[in-house]
Description:
The complex is a heterodimer.
Chain A: E1 3-7, E2 11-12, E3 18-25, E4 35-41, E5 48-54, E6 59-61, E7 69-74, E8 79-84, E9 93-100, E10 107-110, E11 114-118
Parallel strand pairs in A: 2-11
Antiparallel strand pairs in A: 1-3, 3-8, 4-5, 4-9, 5-6, 7-8, 9-10, 9-11
Chain B: E1 9-12, E2 18-23, E3 35-40, E4 47-50, E5 64-69, E6 72-77, E7 86-93, E8 99-101, E9 105-109
Parallel strand pairs in B: 1-9
Antiparallel strand pairs in B: 2-6, 3-4, 3-7, 5-6, 7-8, 7-9
Amino acid sequence: QVTLKESGPALVKPTQTLTLTCTFSGFSLITSGMRVSWIRQPPGKALEWLARIDWDDDKFYSTSLKTRLTISKDTSKNQVVLTMTNMDPVDTATYYCARMGRTVGYFDYWGQGTLVTVSS
Amino acid sequence: QSALTQPASVSGSPGQSITISCTGTSSDVGGYNYVSWYQQHPGKAPKLMIYDVTNRPSGVSNRFSGSKSGNTASLTISGLQAEDEADYYCSSYTSSSTVVFGGGTKLTVL
C-alpha cells in the first residue's frame, strides 16, 4: 500500500526559507524507475508542478522557480525534502508530494497536502 | 512554460456525456503521449483518472476516457453522475523535462 504524507510549518514569514518533508511508504526511491514530485495549489487556483527527484538522484525543477528550489532525498528514511527560499505571500498554497508512475507523465499516488501560509 | 488551456467550466445533466479539452503545444501535449487527467473534489487531493493519454488506472470507472489529436487532449465522461461533479486538471510532460498542468475545469452536474 503506497502512502505519502507531507509535513512542515503551517506559517512562514516573508523572505524565510520553507522546508517541507514528504514521508512515504509502500515503495523505495532506490528502486529503478521511481520518482517523486512536489506540486502546489494556491487557494482556489490551479495545480503547479514544482520539482522532481528520481531513483538515480536526477533532479528537475520548474523553470520559473528553479533558482529558489532544492529537492533532495533520504532513502534510509523514505523521505523527500523540498526547500524553497525567499518565501512571499504569493507562495501561500497547499503543497503536495506525489509519486510518479511508470512513465514520467503522471502522478499515481498523492499525499493529503499541507497548507503553507506566508504572512508576517 | 505556460499552463495548458482548459475551459473554465462545463456542465451536463445526469446520464449525459461531456468532454473537457486541454490544449498545449508541440513541446508538451503534441510532442508526447504523456497526458494525464486528475479529478479533485473540494478539500481533497487530486485523483488520477487517465494516464498516458488513454489509460485508466485500476478502479477508475470505464465511463472516463481520454484521447488526443495534435496539440489537444480530451477527457470524456459518459453517463454523468452526481459524484462526477468536481474540478478536473490535465497535465503533460514537456520537452524541458518538466510537467505542466492545465488551469482546471469545474464540472457541474445539473
